[in-house]
Amino acid sequence: MKGITIDKGFLTPSFDPEITQYSVTLPCNEGKEFSISAVKEDARAQIKINEEEKASGEAKTVDLERGNNEIQIVITAEDGTTKVYTINVTSSDYDGGSGTQDDPYIIACAESFYNIRYATDQYFIQVADIDLDAYNWSPITRFDGEYNGQGFEIQNFTMNTSSLKKAGAFIDNYGTIENILFTNVNVHTYRYYGTAYLSQQAQLLNSISPSTQEPLPH
């Protein structure tokens, strides 16, 4: 095979026809579709990508799921011998970083903000305004990490629930949330509401929530 072409990210390692295992890591904001094509060396060989036959250089679009996605390219020579190339594409929960104090997870889109719930004891930093208009929010519970919004906005925060007594972006916050601005907040819930609920150890610093927040009738 001459090469593998992808529409986003980088092959690791760089393509070599003798190397059959590759990885690609995509940040959360790269989307959920991934296109890949293979260019064959021998015009008589056959290419299949995830069992679908493709012409040389013809792309296949793969719908990515959260976490690891395995893509196989099978090259079948005229004599029937095959060679399999495996590309493991990881769709990251965040937009960069590793979750440590020195290298916090980067939050740049609605999905990565939602995914905070999968690593609630880690460090996060927001690098752009985020629009949650498409979400009816499900709270992030038991937050023990540190979140620095750097003054960016969380826009169009909406939560409607009749089953939860507490409603907000964070519930039972034991960590630190700072420098975050919630705008156009609309929360309707059974009893208690707010953008964050604090334990005695928690901190909510420089964070503002202009909002409409109402208890539902009960």
Task: Please characterize this protein's 3D structure.
The chain has 218 residues and is an all-beta fold. It contains one helix and 24 strands. The protein has one helix at residues 110-114, and strands spanning 3-6, 21-26, 33-39, 46-49, 52-54, 60-63, 67-76, 82-91, 105-107, 123-126, 130-131, 140-143, 146-148, 153-155, 158-160, 166-167, 170-173, 176-178, 181-183, 185-189, 192-193, 196-198, 203-205, 211-215. Strands 2-8-7-4-5 form a five-stranded mixed β-sheet, with no helix packed on it. A five-stranded parallel β-sheet has the order 9-10-13-18-23. The longest helix has 5 residues, at 110-114. It is elongated and about 65 Å long. The relative contact order is 0.12. Mean pLDDT is 85; it is low at 193-205 and 208-218.
Strand order of the largest sheet: 2-8-7-4-5
Shape estimate: elongated
How is the main sheet built? 5 strands, mixed
Helix content: under 10%
Radius of gyration: 23 Å
Mean pLDDT: 85
Question: How would you briefly describe this protein structure?
Answer:
The chain is mainly β. It contains 1 helix and 24 strands. A hairpin with a 5-residue loop joins strand 7 (about 65-75) and strand 8 (about 80-90).
